């Protein structure tokens, strides 16, 4: 009764096969090949899924994709990194494989995985906030992710936190992810120093080593994220905030000032616990697999255990 799952990203497709106990018995990655165009990405996804299906003979398939999705119709409405517009992902996969297919948003799928298997386990309400190339959020309540009327709930990265800030690709200005994302940290440091090719991890290390420019940019990122999280806490009052993505690996130099900055911004609001995600880059794939397990008629899910044990 294995299910297979794919998490489609702009650079890589992460895939896996989940056993009855909730563990991934196989993981694999392939390049997305988005530079070859949207049709090539579709062909790549379908081919990858077919290869996995032949190997594992699954009972169902789960797939998670980025961007704006319609989970009711199984359609990728807009995924800029993939070049997709109104792609009927679920129906095409169903036709290709002859299997039940669960379709979801990559961040909401990651939130589901953290709720059942990771840092949100046992928590009734939390925000799953991946901070990487961009910044997003899944609003989790009673183990389910809020999608919203237009499937746009959780776009934390596009809260305006710096009204006079730089333009954002979304069309806004001063959005959170233009300051707080890993990509923004690297870009802003390169612009300030003229040194290119460094990532956020290198900027963090330079900040720790006493580089004033790096320290200022790192602090700006933390302060901006605290601004965005303060708004989210005021609106949603979550028990916990689970930080994922690459910056979740930054440790105390990230989490300690973030907790302090958020506490400074709250008055009457309750302070949630801020913790790192546990499932890392597997969260989206695990979440897609869980969506597949939840399909009506597939099976009653067996008790799950931590996927990283």
Reconstruct the topology from this structure.
Elements: E1 3-8, E2 12-18, E3 24-31, H1 38-56, E4 60-65, E5 68-70, E6 75-79, E7 84-87, H2 89-97, E8 101-105, H3 106-117, E9 125-130, E10 138-141, E11 144-145, H4 177-180, H5 182-193, H6 200-208, H7 212-236, E12 240-244, H8 252-265, E13 273-276, H9 283-293
Parallel strand pairs: 1-4, 4-8, 9-12, 12-13
Antiparallel strand pairs: 1-2, 2-3, 5-6, 6-7, 9-10, 10-11
Helix pairs in contact: 1-2, 3-9, 5-6, 5-7, 6-7, 7-8
Characterization of the model:
The protein is of the alpha/beta class and 309 residues long. It has two domains: 121 residues, ATPase, nucleotide binding domain (Nucleotidyltransferase, domain 5, 2-Layer Sandwich), CATH 3.30.420; 154 residues, ATPase, nucleotide binding domain (Nucleotidyltransferase, domain 5). Helix content is 37%, strand content 21%. The protein has nine helices and 13 strands. It has a five-stranded mixed beta sheet with strand order 3-2-1-4-8, sandwiched between helices. The protein has a five-stranded mixed beta sheet with strand order 11-10-9-12-13, with helices on both faces. A hairpin with a 4-residue loop joins strand 6 and strand 7. Helix 3 packs across helix 9. The longest helix is centred in the C-terminal third of the chain and has 25 residues.
Main traits of this protein?
9 helices, 309 residues, 21% strand, 5-stranded mixed β-sheet, 13 strands, single chain, alpha/beta, Nucleotidyltransferase, domain 5, globular
């Amino acid at each position: 009764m294995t299910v297979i799952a794919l998490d489609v990203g702009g650079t890589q497709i992460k895939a896996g096969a989940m056993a009855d106990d909730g563990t991934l018995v196989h993981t694999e990655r392939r390049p997305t090949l988005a530079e070859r165009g949207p049709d090539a990405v579709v062909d790549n996804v379908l081919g990858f899924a077919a290869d996995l299906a032949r190997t594992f003979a699954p009972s169902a398939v789960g797939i998670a994709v980025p961007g704006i999705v319609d989970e009711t119709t199984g359609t990728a409405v807009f995924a800029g990194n993939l070049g997709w517009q109104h792609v009927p992902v679920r129906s095409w996969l169903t036709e290709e494989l002859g299997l039940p297919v669960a379709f979801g948003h990559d961040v909401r799928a990651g939130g589901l995985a953290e709720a059942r298997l990771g840092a949100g386990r046992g928590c009734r309400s939390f925000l799953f906030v991946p901070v990487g190339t961009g910044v997003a959020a899944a609003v989790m309540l009673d183990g389910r992710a809020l999608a919203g009327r237009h499937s746009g709930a959780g776009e934390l990265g596009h809260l305006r936190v710096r009204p006079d800030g730089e333009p954002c690709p979304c069309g806004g200005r001063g959005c959170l992810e233009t300051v707080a994302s890993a990509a923004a940290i690297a870009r802003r440091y390169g612009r300030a120093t003229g040194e290119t090719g460094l990532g956020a991890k290198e900027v963090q290390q330079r900040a720790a080593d006493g580089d004033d420019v790096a320290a200022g940019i790192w602090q700006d990122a933390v302060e901006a994220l605290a601004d965005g999280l303060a708004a989210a806490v005021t609106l949603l009052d979550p028990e916990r905030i689970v930080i994922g993505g690459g910056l979740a690996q930054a440790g105390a130099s990230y989490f300690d000032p973030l907790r302090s900055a958020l506490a400074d911004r709250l008055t009457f609001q309750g302070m949630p616990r801020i913790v790192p995600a546990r499932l890392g880059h597997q969260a989206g794939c695990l979440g897609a697999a869980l969506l597949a397990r939840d399909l009506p008629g597939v099976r009653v899910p067996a008790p799950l255990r931590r996927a990283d044990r």
